Please model this.
Amino acid sequence: MLNLVLFGPPGAGKGTQSQKLIEKHGLIHLSTGDLLRSEISQGTELGLEAKKLMDHGTLVPDEVVIGMISHKLDANKDAKGFIFDGFPRTVAQAEALDQLLASKNAPILGMIALEVNDDELEQRLLLRGKDSGRPDDANPEVIRKRIKEYNDKTAPVAGFYKAQNKFKSINGIGSINEIFDEIDDVIAAY
Ligand code: ADP
Model:
């Protein structure tokens, strides 16, 4: 199974590159941000609780996102592989993911990180906010909070995969196709 974690701060381009990867390799895209936004638009209890946190740029509790991912893994038993986008976002989530995948005998092959500096991220997110309709993209204060959450809680997840020799990082600034080619070279070398 081709199980990959696409890693990087908000606005690094994970969603864009995920789309290209699923097209080329026939993988299933699991974005916890998208799953949470779908809960919000359906007006579920989980969505209502998550929205309060997301609108402030704060992470939602680990057990909530782990539960969603576990459910999606069970619902896609015949998948060729998964792209995890926006998950794991904490070390506890990474540990839980390893356990979920161990029970399926289909470990994470690697984590690919997209490197983009904070100034560029803020610009990209504000630009995206103009037409994404996402409240968390529209407000510079919320954007900075998301980048801070990333640096505090999510950046350490890289160490988790480095310790397993599964971490690769690439430059996330350049054209979409250039970056895709680099990601694909990394995948080919796994
Ligand atoms: P971004 O562009 O900021 O990476 P996402 O769409 O991945 O956006 O996530 C939006 C918000 O959803 C996050 O700011 C956070 O509140 C919540 N979220 C998404 N994934 C997770 C996760 N794995 N753990 C906790 N919170 C999450």
Q: What stands out?
A: The longest strand covers residues 110-115. Residues 4-184 form a domain with the Rossmann fold fold (CATH 3.40.50.300). The pocket of adenosine-5'-diphosphate is lined by residues 10-11, 32-33, 36, 53-54, 57-60, 65, 86-87, 89, 93, 136, 146 (CB under 6 Å).
